[in-house]
Amino acid sequence: MNSSSLTALPAWQALKAHAAALAGQHMRELFAADPDRFARLSFSFGPVRADYSKNRVTLETISLLAELARVRGVEEGRAAMFAGARINTTENRAVLHVALRNREERPMMVDGVDVMPEVRATRARLRTFSDDVRQGRWRGATGKVLRHIVNIGIGGSHLGPMFVADAMKDLQSPEMTVAFVSNPDRAQLDDALAKIDPAETLFIICSKTFTTAETTLNADAARAWLTARLGETAVAKHFAAVSTNVEAAKTFGIHPDAVFPMWDWVGGRYSVWSAIGLSVILVCGYDAFDQLLAGAEAMDRHFETASLEQNLPVILALIGVWYADFFDAPAVAVMPYDYRLKLFPFHLQQLDMESNGKGVTKEGAKVETQTGPIIFGGGGADSQHSFFQLLHQSPRLIPCDFIIALKGADGAGPSRDLLMANCLAQTEALLKGRTAADLASTPESLRPHREFTGNRPSNTLLLDELTPYVLGMLIALYEHKVFVQGLIWGVNSFDQWGVELGKELAKSLMPALRDKPAAAEGLLKARDSSTAGLALAYLQAKAQQ
Questions:
Q1: Torsion sign across C-alpha atoms 281, 285, 290, 292
Q2: CA distance 485 to 318
Q3: What parts of the chain have a pLDDT lower than 50?
Q4: Is the distance from CB of 213 to CB of 507 less than 8 angstroms?
Q5: How many Cβ atoms from other residues are within 10 Å of residue 542's Cβ?
Q6: What is the pLDDT of residue 3?
Q7: Same domain, yes or no: 276 and 328
Q8: Alpha carbons within 13 A on the beta-carbon side of 7
């Protein structure tokens, strides 16, 4: 990658001049001037169609952005990732989550070693174990079939599988339930355990190190709940684990056949494709999970081989950089108009903001531009009645991604008609707005309130149908989009030191919070007065209980 000043690059300066030239043009004018604009600025790849014509861009914009991507080494960075290079420089790790969905015989190398034999062996074990549980060959300690799955994790070990399981809910076995526990507030675990039989419950502990504080706390509580009812020997039949720390999982009491590996070249937010997806596999079946991998693999091949101008993840990434850095857009709103995708914005929050929410470049210099945007959103139909007001009339420019499938739970029936009408109408309203001329019959005092500037950008992703295959494509699309943006901004998209700082401080506070108020005062002297005062208030309340 070119490590020189980003904003001093000729490619950047050309974009800056181009943005100034476009600033006075409304998208209404762009559409009026080009009847074929939709055909020119939309892209189809298999069952995914992307319309990016409702953006403040022209073909020249995309060409200039693609040139910036070339200068910033996007093509080289892409090749380095697929080659297993240690592109996570601050942690000296390869970034090879694409190997997890590589279903071909193609080798994928890290430090000269093909990782695929181990990946394929783990997939085979996942299929065997999940089939054994689903078909009643692996039973609980009392001989009952395991029907209730409780996934215990946090971050990528929670958000990814929770989202995917919910998105594939139509494929879940009606005889099984699944719950996801991440919060150290005991209320979440208690809610998950309230209506299930311990003799029919399988817990999955998902922790890369098997030492994550929140996960360890909940795992210990789940173990206590189970053993109080079924005895210590039940642990081996009622717990599974996904971790790099296999020995710690076995020490916990988990049977070796139920311990599945992770690798340091897989980041948490990219791990749903690994054994972290075990909860999904158990409730939806391995074949559905395999189709998820197949869809992601198809997007991987497209991302790896297509030219920048004809590359869907790259195009979406470039448009995102365009708004973040040349229009000062602080955020991106993501609205799926499919109920099964309602958790997707939460998954994207971690994927995007944890990856690119960085203030320094890979070289350790301060960034010169805005980097990761704020990601927010929710189900489109519900969001229309909450934050869409801000999208339409706020002075802030917030680009939007709309996602909808041509077929829904009732095929292409009345509910799909209404969803499609709403989705398309919102993108049209953001584009066109409403002018004073449109309000001629409206009382003059109300016109300012009912006028909309329009010229507000959006992408629309039109899916043929929300199948596991298409879901895999969709998730991989956004993964690669985030990666490309990180390359352009020059940041490391694969570390998360900001997360680590909070963990370290929490760990150092724990001795004081476990002590009595008088003794804790000494431990808190080094803290600021606010942190110390709040900690003492907690300790005093705790002492009175």
A1: negative
A2: 7
A3: 1
A4: yes
A5: 12
A6: 56
A7: no
A8: 7
Coil, helix or strand at residue 402: strand
Average pLDDT of every residue of the chain = 95
Tell me how far apart the alpha carbons of residues 275 and 254 are, in angstroms, rounded to a whole number: 15
Choose among 66, 104, 94, 88: nearest CA to 296: 104
The four Cα atoms 489, 50, 159, 190 give a dihedral, to 10 degrees, of 150
DSSP string, 280-312: HHHHH-HHHHHHHHHHHHHHHHHHHHS-GGG-H
CB contact at 8 A, 520 and 535: yes
Give per-residue pLDDT as tens, 145-190.
999 999 999 999 999 999 999 999 999 999 999 999 999 999 999 9
Q: Is residue 1 part of a domain?
A: no
Tell whether the torsion through CA atoms of 22, 25, 27 and 30 is positive or negative: negative
Rounded CA separation 218/202 (Å): 14
For 124, half-sphere exposure in the C-beta direction (CA atoms, 13 angstrom radius) is 6
Listed residue (544, 501, 509, 543) closest to 525, CA to CA: 509
Contacts of 418 (CB under 8 A, 6+ apart): none
pLDDT tens digits, one per residue of 435-444: 888 888 889 8
Give me the half-sphere count of Cα atoms (radius 13 Å) on the Cβ side of residue 436. Answer: 3
Whether 458 contacts 337, CB under 8 Å: no
Domain harbouring 49, CATH code:
3.40.50.10490
Q: Cα–Cα–Cα angle for 454, 455, 459, nearest 5°?
A: 110
Whether residue 351 sits in one domain with residue 269: no
Provide the residue range defining the domain that includes 419.
43-65+311-435+448-495
Q: Which residues pair with 202 in a beta bridge?
A: 149
Which residues, in sequence order, are CB contacts of 345 under 8 Å at separation 6+? 334, 335, 336, 375, 376, 377, 378
Query: Residue 14 domain-assigned?
Result: no
Counting the structural domains of the chain, the total is 3
Catalytic residue ranges = 354, 385, 503
The structure's pTM equals 0.96
Q: What is the pLDDT of residue 503?
A: 87
Beta-carbon neighbour count of residue 498 at 10 Å? 12
